[in-house]
Write a structure and sequence with these properties.
The protein is an alpha+beta fold. Helix content is 20%, strand content 27%.
Length: 1539
Amino acid sequence: MNSNAMEVTLQPAPAVTYRTIGGILDFYILFGDTPEQVVQEFLVLIGRPVIPPYWSLGFQISRWGYGNLSEVKQTVERNRAVALPYDIQYTDIDYMEDKKDFTYDKLNFNELPQFADYLHEKGQKYIIILDPAIATSKRVGNAPYGSYDRGTEKNAWVTESDGTTPLLGEVWPGETVFPDYTSQSCIDWWIDEYEQFSREIKHDALWIDMNEVSNFKKGSNKGCDDNNLNYPPYTPKILDEVMFSKTLCMDAKQAWGNHYDVHSLYGYSMVLATEKALQRVFAGNRTLMLTRSSFPGVGKYSGHWLGDNAANWNDIKWAIPGMLEFGLFGVPYIGADICGFFDDCSEELCRRWMQVGAFYPFSRNHNAEGYKPQDPAAFGPNSLLVESSKHYLRIRYTLLPYLYTLFYKAHTTGETVVRPVMHEFYSDSATWTVDRQFLWGKHLLITPVLDPGVEKVYAYIPDATWYDYETMERLADRRKYVDMHLPADKLGLHIRGGAILPTQRPDVTTVYSRRNPMGLIVALDDNNQAAGELFWDDGDSRETVKTGNHVHYEFSAVNGMLKMQVTHSGYKDPNNLKFENITVLGVPQPPISVSETHIGTNGNFTTTVPSTNIQYDEAKKVMFLHGRSLTLGETYVVQWELDPKETQRFDCYPEENADEAKCKARGCIWEPSTNAGVPWCFYPRDYGYTVTEVKNTSSGITVDITRNKKYRSSGRPDSPDIDKIRVEIRYHSSNMLQFKMWDPAADRYEVPVPLSVPAAPETDEGKRLYKVEVTPNPFGIQVTRKSTGTKIWDSSVPGFTFSDMFIQVSTLLPSEFVYGFGETEHPTYKHDLNYHTWGMFAKDQPPGYKMNCYGVHPFYMGLETTADAHGVLLLNSNAMDVTFQPTPALTYRTVGGILDFYMVLGPTPEMVVQEYTALIGRPVLPAYWSLGFQLCRYGYANDTEIADLYRDMKAAGIPYDVQYADIDYLDRQLDFVLDPMFVGLPALVDRMRGESMKFIFILDPAISGNESHYPAFERGKAEDVFIKWPKNISDEIVWGKVWPDLPNVTVDESLDWEIQVEIYRAYTAFPDFFRNRTAAWWHQEVQDFYNNLKFDGLWIDMNEPASFVHGTVGGKCHGNPLLENPPYMPPLESQHVGLNHKTLCMNSEQELTDGKKVRHYDVHNLYGWSHAKPTYDALLNVTGKRGIVVTRSTYPSSGKWAGHWLGDNNASWDQLYKSIIGMMEFSLFGISYTGADICGFFNAAEYEMCLRWMQLGSFYPYSRNHNGKGNKRQDPVAWNSTFAEASRDVLNIRYTLLPYLYTLMFEAHTKGSTVVRPLLHEFVNDKTTWDIYKQFLWGPALLITPALDQGARSVDGYVPNARWYDFHTAKDVGVRGKMLSMPTPLDHINLHIRGGYILPWQKPQNTTYYSRRNPLGLIVALSDSQTAQGLFFWDDGEGIDTVERQQYLLTSFTAEKNNLSSEVLHNGLNPADQLTLGVVKVWGAGSVQIVQVTLTDETGGVHLLTSQHNLITQELIIDATPRSVRVDKRWTITWNNSI
């Protein structure tokens, strides 16, 4: 911030050098993140721009050189005559008497006092010019020049260096003085003169010129003295390289200082004075100011034009970067003189300039004295120029509501109006140099012709959907340069998909157009969505945003529903405006019906739009709604239903290579579509089953259904259809129901996972949240939420199929907001419903897009448009897939078992998870130490490497609780056998555990069968625990190969992997963990292992189960080959190989607990589930403590026994945000103890990525840094001291908050609450949160906004609608319900505490053993009402079933009215685990000094406490440590402003 003469030099280093000749260097750096955010932050600093009056957005005509008023009127009349949209006429200095301010020429402009009325009669406005320079000469007839005389009396002039003598120069009127607008007496003079003149010459706004300040003499009539101000030691590269060229002497005096220092502020100071004058004259009317000279902050009051350009092709080009720059500078009301100021303009140049100028925010045609007129009508009433100008000005006037809304956004948020393409597409470097195109806001791309004689423009089409504004056709190109054909009467105008633009029928002035009906242009994007806004007021009054005298709409269109939501209604337009026409671009087929719903305070009213008012252009895919009458200021929903042949088709041939013959062989309809994803082969409407019998009871419904044999079989001969199906619907509770479909004539496999359903059903219909109906033909189940009438399940759609090895059912969804289904990597938390299919089959498959991974969770949560939530579980363990389509609808396909659905009704997202985990089992409570930081690596060469790592971590002081050993520690990867290179490991483990560390070892399920003496295998074989073939085929073990190597081999790891497997890997057997005897065997092996090598937790891997051969050694699976390659193969990774790819043969036989034999085909997805409980039981038994089990493969209810890591991820940036999605999904699945391998498993980690991942990973519930063999180390001490310090700092924050995290784990264990929590769970009524997946919460109160992108030094985070405190500063962030750009230097992660909550904390230590012994602190984050609540759970941290045995402390804390009190809800704590109260931090304690803090104990004793109150941050720190107050006792702390 410097106002002296300066220069900047740019050099290719890249670097910039500033040189200034005075003042100071005062830099403000804005970190933005995006270019648009930089501007927004800059305008917070300097002030956001004014909203110009609506009429000022109309087209304007001006000229210097009107000889008299008759010439002006001729100009007006000829442009009126051609019906040119045209709002404003100017007069330049010609109107003045001898060019003197505040006078008019009574000879040539005699009727000027009546000119404004002449314009107003036709809805037009009049703007005059004023220059700052004031003549010293007399007026005509030697009359006194009052303005000069009064200014002299008030000492209003800039003076010479003596501070007394007015400085004389020369401008248009001859010898002049120069007003000093930095002087109050000058400001008063200026206001008075302007007010007096405005009574004489009526006008509507003011144009101030020559205010740099301009002088035709060098410095003054006397010249300038030779001194360091006029001739400084260094002169920047300025005009003529003379400081006073065309301006004043630099030693001239002004009230703000030497002109040398404030010269660049002259125009700014004149703007400030003029704003006061305009307020005096126009009072409550907004009016308009236009200034030539500007400085940061001018945009708050004034617009700007780009100066006296010339009529040439260079200057038409230059105008675009000029406008874009002033957009950066905070002056959005900007434009260039259309057709050029100097020189005569050719018709072609003026025509092209009128085309682009129609899209300048300030759109004025202006030229200079001595050149021929260039207003449009001057080129002839029937000229191409006139027709082209009228065409684009009518488009401008049509879009003025959009442009006006952009100015509202600029005024309220600082968004740019004219916008560089780069601002919207900054990740596309091709846009960084685009300066011959520009945008209006986000959504309108303008591509003008800027060269002579051309009709093709080489234009860039950014990466989005675009529609030609004039033809409405969708462009085929994106993210590329194209040759755009633009004949003589055209410019390029394109609407971005995703836009909703408010419009109004145009007229010749805005006075008239504002009376006309409004409309909307809806341009659908790739996801069939769009959004927009409208701001509307009277167009003229001041401060309508502040006073609320306006209307604001938010428009959204999603999947055929256009919502016109009024968010503010403080203005009633006198013209009773209606939305008349709605145009929707990108509608794929004709609508079969359109409805309008008026959302009123007295209820909703829906009408059907008559077909005569609906038009559809098949070629252009555009829907027009005409003749509507939707009142401005009211909320409406417009819905269009498309032909079901498209959006309501259900795929009859999901396999590849469909054709018409195959389709019709299944009795289905074949109809190709041009729309991506739409099935060409689809079911007839009545395809499925019909109801034959229904029995209703108070507890449910039983239905018998029969396949509709009108159609042929389902088309898979190897999977015969089952004609008769039994359906049972059970009302388990008020918020849960089950619907089960099976073959009553056969014993089909059902999932053996036990669920907790209520002992008695809910028979009272009044208590149930749902209503169930059965549709007869086709059969379907409809579940409706009674409170809203929303159908949350509706399977009355075609395609229901139940055959032996293929079962399919589809349902309509209440909205497109669906979350869940796993385990696979999803790119967003909310599913994309645009025809995506996700396979589910447990597999040793690292995370990847549409790759089925380690576990299976057929559970989803759906949000309804009412913000209610529900959850659905399909209890089926066969290979399956789910397909989403934009109907919105969902299709399940599975290759076996039955359909067994459970639905929970919430109604909040958090309640959905609580109800779901009540059904499947609550998450395990992990040991406290397992919440500490953990280190692992596949590739430790020996125990010395682990010892060295432990030493270095201790030396660095980095919190660290758990060390792992991967399979390296096992001799040839044999379970339970120690490798000779790790002979010192038992002693190391004992030493580390003696120093308060914990150790976890890996165990895989596969057991080698190639050893001469291997007790684990020998005892297992004796106990018959291994999976075998069915007895009718063989009594042999089904052999696979995994990690164990053969004896006496040296592995050459340079060989191809398949060769290594073949020649080095031993045969392995797979324990069948369903069997009770297997659990006993596993327990004994774990016990023997523990006797030799102590551990605290177990990590079970490869339990999908994984095998390195397909099916079995040799590759030949015995038995039915359809089990390996079923008639329908879901889209799984390597599906062409079969289901046995990298696992066992599907015909392998397993035995359930009750002795029932089952095929691996049916229970494959349960292998990891069956492995978890025996491992957890063994761990607890052999250690006598809780510990933790971490498993790779999971299924619903696995969370009762184990945590989960997100698998073998990559060291890549995208894995950071995808890990958040994964954790949030596993929160839905009832597994709270989750996290990803910090810094990535595969590939080498990069420094910045790993550091950012350490920050993010410090807030994983399961926080482990782990990487793969062959990659460089990535633990915190593997980098440098800076990395280690940053890791230590962020882990110290984690350890500080572990009491809060542990309390959340307790609530998950007892109530089923989520730990890692999506924002939508806490703020479901804020639909912005429904799409957020790059931020997350710990519980309800800690918001984590990590940096997830390379090079990011700020993060755009959403701040939900609550009070939030910055964890690092304790300050209220002062923002809510909006995005916030958060500075995020490399050593920082953004953390915010929610007001209204109390978080327990402890001073961190290097392990939890020591941190648990510190006093308990509290963060009391006060809400707006100065209240807060919190909970604290505490036990010994590792005892078994401490909750069930009541061996814990549970305390609640409440803050209200300067009091903080505790209440002990349960106290069964062992005395050895008792804590005392430490430091209490009260955030939001106010800015009135707290002078006394007291603690009242449970005996009534009152104790003074020491405190510190920071009045700036409003943090009150209270230290209760010296009082040794026990946390398990009641107490109250009170703080007061007076004693």
